[in-house]
Amino acid sequence: MQIDDIPDMATLRARIDALDEQLVALLAQRKALIDRAARIKERIGLPARIDARVEEVVANAARHAASRGLDPALIENIWRQLVEAAIAQEDRYLNGDRP
Q1: Which residues form a coiled coil (predicted)?
Q2: Which residues neighbour 37 within 8 Å (Cβ) at sequence distance 6 or greater?
Q3: Residue 89 falls within a domain, yes or no?
Q4: What total of structural domains would you count in the chain?
Q5: Which of 47, 31, 52 lies closest to 99 in space, CA to CA?
Q6: Is position 17 within any domain?
Q7: Structure confidence at residue 97 (pLDDT)
Q8: Tell me, what's the pLDDT at 7?
Q9: pTM, two decimal places
């Protein structure tokens, strides 16, 4: 079913809910990768925050957003929050707060 073929709000909402579930699953995968990054950073002596990498990740997201017709400033804002949460996650691990 194409987006223009969605006949009513109930169907539309169901599609949005399903997409939200997929986004959460992707965020869970990202969290697992951040957990792995923290273990690698600990082993090689890197800090949680690497400013150049933060800017690279945010710029990549903004560029991808623009190429898909999304507002790059909005995506940059969301990604900065996402990256800050990831850095906090890594900091907790590197400071001994491990699951």
Answers
A1: 9-43
A2: 86, 90
A3: yes
A4: 1
A5: 31
A6: yes
A7: 79
A8: 94
A9: 0.87
Distance CA 46, CA 57 (A): 17
Q: Is residue 99 part of a domain?
A: no
Percent over 70 (pLDDT), the chain: 97
CATH no. for residue 60? Answer: 1.20.59.10
Q: What is the DSSP string of 42-81?
A: HHHT--S--HHHHHHHHHHHHHHHHHTT--HHHHHHHHHH
Residue numbers of the domain that contains 41: 3-94
- The rounded distance, in Å, linking the Cα atoms of 16 and 87 is 29
| Chain segment 13-60, per-residue pLDDT in tens | 999 999 999 999 999 999 999 999 999 999 999 999 999 999 999 999
